[in-house]
Design a protein that fits this description.
This protein folds into two domains: 5-201, no CATH class; 217-539, Thrombin, subunit H (Beta Barrel). 38% of the residues lie in helices and 17% in strands. The protein is built from 18 helices and 15 strands. A hairpin with a 5-residue loop joins strand 13 and strand 14 (533-535). The radius of gyration is 23 Å and the shape is globular. The two termini are 18 Å apart. Residues 1-29 are annotated as: Disordered.
Length: 543
């Protein structure tokens, strides 16, 4: 799906009146028109940067582009806007190039280069005398943050020393996480190194303390319902729990994935692209089986007196949720520089004494209340392709290793699983590539009418049983001003769910899509009755 430059520019030039504000969380926010100008110029530079193989020229293009941006527009909130646009440019290029793993390091280097040059220009622009001299330029915390991040990526070093292949699991995830946290939570520079270490040492509780979020009054005053994580006190196998559940009306509205056809879609939305997207979306949705409950789960939901899910449950009590595969990476004993392992760390390899020298690491996106920390992730199994009781030949399992990133307030988590089944890894790579291509296409096709149809899609494993689809409409949207995070939102919707649906990705047609695969998306968090379900806080595409 190699979208042309002209088409991309056309897509980003939709009339402002048909779209919501790009950033409604600040009184000094730039309007859509200004952001579109920034996006177009930055996108052109990024494309030129990608075409030319000379690194020095690429960095020069970025420098010139940012200088041009400062000349053509004077946005009140330019720093936040440019940071966001840098991410968006990288995301869109990744979508166009089918997320080619061999080029990702270069794309992230581009984002970092743009960030540091932005910092330099901000210093010049904030100079009291208007002179472009660093001596007279007061370094703001924002600028210092950009410098600190760029140093970690070696962007400020000479061209010869700048690596093109940056380390995915550590450096790149840290960079994106730090930029995102800086953008949304005003993270102090002094915390950066500590923040980076916390992501990979498993000290999630300390990480949460770094970025406590002040939830808006309207959300806090809502009556909390129940989370859709299956109760650990339920007995019996998944089929028995599903059969005896009292929410029979919810079950009747769900569509067994094995029976799903295009006729299940509303007539005004029926298309092969949307049908294929939902099919692939379902294929990368997994059942999560958590076989231990951490003692470190908080007792209450942050900012409330409501009991946190499974807090105080017996340590060995199993429960279920739902997740989605969001990244797949291959490793081998000869090429494991992006992994902390040297051989496959799965249970079978550990017990065999002859571990495989090839393995895959798969990231799963779910709710923070489903998989809380490393102790739970290490005792988690993900069941793939659980579609039918009659045919179990395709069913596969992934074993959990550790939590990569988590946000309790926004209720999302990414944890890592491993497998040495390389045929499975190849299959998941292919599915994920198709998912992102179709994700971008259905977003572009349906964005203009997203407020009219409000179509909502959930794929989950209620009660840990067979995979089912839930179709409905979103009923209320809380924007950036409500959730106090730029470019983020929270939704209420009526799509049917049940215990075990927690952690399922919620797709809002025309609102979700076209962005980076691990950037925080909306997940199903809980329910307040059959007509009011709630997502976690997720990023929303504005371009």
């Amino acid at each position: 799906m190699a979208t042309s430059m002209t088409q991309c520019q056309t897509d980003t030039s939709l009339q402002s009146k048909d779209r919501e504000s790009s950033y409604d969380g600040s009184q000094n926010a730039a309007d859509d028109k200004d952001v579109e100008i920034v996006y177009k110029v930055g996108y052109q530079a990024a494309k030129e940067w990608h075409r030319d193989s000379d690194l020095e020229f690429r960095v020069l293009v970025v420098q010139q582009t940012l200088q041009k941006l400062f000349q053509i527009t004077d946005l009140p909130d330019l720093h936040n806007t440019m940071t966001y646009v840098c991410f968006q440019i990288v995301r869109d290029i990744e979508c166009e190039l089918f997320l080619n793993a061999s080029n990702r390091g270069e794309y992230y280097h581009l984002a970092c280069a743009m960030a540091v040059e932005l910092g330099k220009e901000m210093s010049k622009k904030k100079s009291p005398s208007g002179l472009a001299t660093e001596q007279e330029s007061p370094k703001t915390k924002e600028v210092e943050t950009m410098y600190a991040i760029s140093e970690r990526c070696n962007v400020k070093k000479s061209v010869k020393e700048t690596p093109l292949q940056l380390r995915f699991d550590k450096i790149l995830e840290n960079v994106l996480h730090e930029l995102r946290i800086r953008f949304g939570f005003k993270l102090q520079v002094s915390n950066l190194d500590k923040q980076s270490g916390l992501l990979y040492t498993g000290k999630c509780a300390d990480l949460d303390k770094q970025k406590q979020m002040n939830w808006p009054e309207p959300l806090l005053k809502q009556e909390y319902g129940e989370f859709d994580m299956e109760s650990p006190m339920e007995s019996g196998d998944p089929k028995q729990r599903y059969t005896r559940c009292s929410k029979t009306k919810e079950h009747e509205k769900m569509i067994l994935f094995a029976d799903f056809s295009i006729t299940h879609l509303p007539e005004n939305l029926r298309s092969n692209t949307l049908f294929e997207f939902i099919w692939v979306f379902a294929m990368i949705t997994v059942r999560i089986e958590i076989n231990t409950i951490s003692d470190d789960r908080p007792k209450q939901i942050p900012g409330t007196e409501i009991d946190y899910p499974c807090s105080g449950a017996f340590e060995s009590t199993p429960t279920h949720g739902t997740g989605r595969i969001c990244n797949v990476t291959k490793h081998s004993a000869d090429n494991h520089k992006f992994s902390k392992f040297k051989v496959c760390p799965c249970e079978r390899c550990k017990s065999s004494g002859h571990p495989s020298k090839e393995w895959g690491e798969i990231l799963i996106f779910t709710a923070a209340h489903v998989v809380h920390d490393n102790s739970e992730a290490g005792k988690t199994r993900c069941r793939l392709f659980y579609h039918s009781e009659d045919d179990s030949s395709e069913e596969k399992y992934l074993v959990g290793v550790n939590v990569v990133e988590r946000d309790i307030e926004r209720d999302w988590c990414r944890f890592k699983c491993v497998t040495c089944d390389m045929d499975l890894v190849e299959k998941l790579e292919s599915l994920l590539s198709s998912f992102f291509r179709l994700w971008y296409e259905v977003f572009q096709e349906n964005r203009a009418d997203s407020k009219k149809h409000r179509f909502t899609i959930i794929v989950s494993h209620p009660h840990g049983y067979l995979k089912r689809l839930s179709l409905g409409r979103w009923t209320k949207r809380f924007g950036a001003k409500d959730v106090q995070v730029p470019y983020h939102s929270l939704y209420h919707y009526d799509a049917p769910t049940c215990g075990g649906s927690s952690g399922a990705t919620v797709h809002f047609l025309g609102k979700s899509g076209g962005n980076m695969h691990w950037f925080d998306q909306h997940i199903h968090s809980g329910c307040y009755g059959p007509m009011r379900k709630q997502s976690g806080v997720g990023w929303e595409n504005k371009f």
